[in-house]
């Protein structure tokens, strides 16, 4: 399953999300939203207003959510 973490610099929730995924061995791609305005606009259009935004084959969520991160282990 493809997992993308859309983040921004100096974002504690972004760093926690990536740290937890690293600890759990979940592979993901990181996209810096400050460098990709088109992606930022797309995510805002989906209703997201805070970083990080995690996108998987099964949907998206925003913010740090430890339970959802742990739920990705079964797909990794």
TrEMBL record:
Pfam families: Glutaredoxin. It comes from Castellaniella daejeonensis. PROSITE patterns: GLUTAREDOXIN_2. It comes from the Bacteria. This is Glutaredoxin family protein. SUPFAM superfamilies: Thioredoxin-like (SSF52833). Residues 3-56 form the Glutaredoxin domain.
């Amino acid at each position: 399953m493809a997992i993308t973490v859309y983040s921004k610099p100096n974002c504690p929730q972004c760093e926690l999300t990536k740290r937890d995924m690293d600890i759990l061995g979940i592979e993901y791609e990181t996209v810096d939203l400050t460098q990709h305005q088109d992606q930022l606009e797309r995510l805002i259009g989906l209703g997201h207003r805070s970083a990080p935004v995690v996108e998987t084959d099964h949907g998206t969520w925003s913010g740090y959510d430890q339970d959802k991160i742990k739920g990705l282990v079964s797909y990794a």
